[in-house]
Amino acid sequence: MYFDKNKRSIGIIGAMAEEIDAVKSKLSDAQTVRISGTDYVYGQLHGVNVVAAMSGIGKVNSAICAEAMILNFTPDCIVNIGVGGALHSDLAIGSAAVADKVVQHDMDLTPLGFEAGFLPGIDRVYIQCDSKCAELLEKAAKNSDIPCRRGIIASGDAFINDSASKKRIAEQFGAIVCEMEGGSIGHVCAVNGVPFAVLRTISDNGDENSDSDFTNSLEASANAALRIMNGFLELYSQE
């Protein structure tokens, strides 16, 4: 499908239009194919083949999107971008976080004797992100003057907006950010043997004010993610 099959390819998934439409608009030689109700826009950016898609919110939507992207476009790496809630005091609204590992904080088989977050089938709690892509994302954030922290990003099918849940996820999993897609995309990529990375810019603090903070900061936080992603692709093309 790509214009130049000799170039490396990156898949980019965002849950919402605010997180992914700007990426789609920057692609040259862009074409669109619809698969399972999702539009996949593919073209080039900074000399890299890119396919971008809006998955919809939540773990199932993002998993469907990632699997279809892998099977139809065979990207060398998938990057999940978007906004998230801060679980660490060093992360302010507008700053960024890059995942070293992802975990699904709402996966709970503890009554059966498994560790919280354990994923049967791949038999682990944490899924390791691609270290090179994580390094490039962190570098791109710093080049854009956006404060950035590396750590564990936790996913679950819930918008976290209470301090008790925030504290539990941070303490139980050592997570610095909560969101709703990275863990499931990582799960799909792990099953398929595809490297992946997760970038989140902070839209809220996961507390009782997170709903209003999210609404007020979504556009600015999504724009920050776009700046980082653009810088990442520039760096990736030079590797």
CATH topology: Rossmann fold
CATH superfamily: Nucleoside phosphorylase domain
The rough form would be described as globular
Strand segment tally: 10
What is the secondary structure topology, with strand pairs?
Elements: E1 9-14, H1 17-26, E2 28-35, E3 38-45, E4 48-54, H2 59-73, E5 77-86, E6 96-104, E7 127-128, H3 131-143, E8 148-155, H4 163-173, E9 175-179, H5 182-192, E10 196-204, H6 210-238
Parallel strand pairs: 1-4, 1-5, 5-10, 6-8, 8-9
Antiparallel strand pairs: 2-3, 3-4, 5-9, 6-7, 6-10
Helix pairs in contact: 1-6, 2-5, 3-6
What this model shows, in words?
The chain is an alpha/beta fold and 239 residues long. The protein has a single domain, classed as Rossmann fold. 37% of the residues lie in helices and 30% in strands. The protein has helices at residues 17-26, 59-73, 131-143, 163-173, 182-192, 210-238; strands at residues 9-14, 28-35, 38-45, 48-54, 77-86, 96-104, 127-128, 148-155, 175-179, 196-204. The protein has a 5-stranded mixed β-barrel, surrounded by 5 helices. Helix 3 (131-143) crosses helix 6. The longest helix has 29 residues, at 210-238. The protein is globular and about 50 Å long. The two termini are 23 Å apart. The mean pLDDT is 95.
